[in-house]
Amino acid sequence: MSEGENLIQTAGTPLQAWQGSQRLAAVTPISLDELAPPGQRVVVVAPHPDDEVIACGGLLAALADRAQPLLLISVTDGEGSHPGSLEWPPERLRLVREEESRAALLALGLAPEALNWQRLHAPDSKVGTDEQGLAAALRALLRPGDVVFTTWQQDGHCDHEAVARACISASTDAGAQLREIPVWAWHWASPEDARIPWERARRFALTPVQVERKRAAILAHQSQLHSDPTTGAAPVLSEQALQRWLQPFEMVFV
Ligand SMILES: [Zn+2]
User: The domain that contains 69 carries what CATH number?
Assistant: First the structure.
């Protein structure tokens, strides 16, 4: 399924509900040094070309301010975000979404040209068809001691879950640490939801500047923010979804 497909049929859990969550309020804080120890390489594995900023744009903004080795892996080109669209055919999305990722990285304070950025060109919406191939490709890029961030294995999105499973396999083989981040769970889960692994959850607090950089980075993904008159589809990333992703913290499963 493409980003958001089957998930944005409803508005999802509103931000106000999350703000009243007792379980969320009780999540243990984690510092930048604990989350991404200095000197260790940070690897962000993004199923689609906006997941790196939605999942951990605030963390990337924090890392941009200190010299820490960083590898970004874009698994798909995000060409499946507008199925059947006359305005956004897959070949246009491939080009535009790469440019949007570049603009988003700049907004976070990262120089795309200086970044180690690998693109795997896996098929959008069909990552699971070659999960072993993806795990092998990731394994070849990982090193012992890496700290790998990706989407959560139960995020409710087929590509996010397939990428997470491949990352688990590759990280285990490589001797890397894996940290998973919920993206669409904020949409479908309820505030006290027992399906969320709260005991593994940690809260990384963002400064107002980091939240604003994350906001600018998400807004760089313009193709995902507008309705499509040729299909009648709503924006892939709704205003309500943006509110949930722009809370002053990022929740990470360790
Ligand atoms: Zn995604």
Answer: 3.40.50.10320
DSSP state of 36: S
Going from the Cα of 211 to the center of ligand 1, the distance in angstroms, rounded, reads: 20
CA 34 / ligand 1 centre spacing (Å): 26
Q: Cα of 50 to ligand 1 centre, how many Å?
A: 7
The answer to whether residue 3 sits within a structural domain is no
Helices 208-219 and 90-108 meet at what angle, rounded to 10?
160
Ligand 1 centre and the CA of 37: distance in Å?
A: 26
pTM of the model: 0.95
- Find out whether 121 and 133 touch, Cβ atoms under 8 Å: no
244 found inside a domain: yes
Rounded Cα gap, residues 254 and 246, in angstroms? 21
Do 253 and 197 touch, CB atoms closer than 8 A? yes
Instruction: Say if 210 falls within a structural domain.
Output: yes
**Residue-wise pLDDT tens for the chain (254 aa)?**
455 554 556 789 999 999 999 999 999 999 999 999 999 999 999 999 999 999 999 999 999 988 899 999 999 999 999 999 999 999 999 999 999 999 999 999 999 888 999 999 999 999 999 999 999 999 999 999 999 999 999 999 999 999 999 999 999 999 999 999 999 999 999 999 999 999 999 999 999 999 999 999 999 999 999 999 999 999 999 999 999 999 999 999 99
Q: How many domains, the chain?
A: 1
Question: 120 C-alpha vs ligand 1 centroid, how far in Å?
Answer: 15
CA–centroid distance, residue 74 to ligand 1 (Å): 10
Distance 147 CA to ligand 1 centre (A): 20
Residue 143: inside a domain, yes or no?
A: yes
> 232: domain range?
15-253
